[in-house]
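Explain this one:

_____
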Amino acid sequence: MSSTTLYRLSGIVLLIGGVLTIIGTLLEAPSAPGTPLWIPGTWLALGGSLLIILGWPGLYLRQADKTGRLGLLGFVLSFVALLILGIGFGTIDTHRMRNEIAASRLCSA
């Protein structure tokens, strides 16, 4: 695969990931956790974040020769921060709310 193809594919993945994250955030922001819009919104935001994580290295590789060591440091730090904040907390939050919803249904039955 040529580098131009890799850059274009990573750009498409970043674009789709960004759109999914925005749609997911707009769906989950006005609704309370556990409501019908909150759950798909959270999954869309999580899926979009995963796509952003997959596309980000291609964006960095496009500019790696110009940014040097400081660019590499910035990329690694922002990559780890997105993994922890975007994916890690999103997964924990979604899983926790799913368990709370299931427990509340059991208690009400």
Summary: The mean pLDDT is 82. Helices lie at 3-28, 38-108. Residues 3-108 form one domain. The chain has one domain: 3-108.
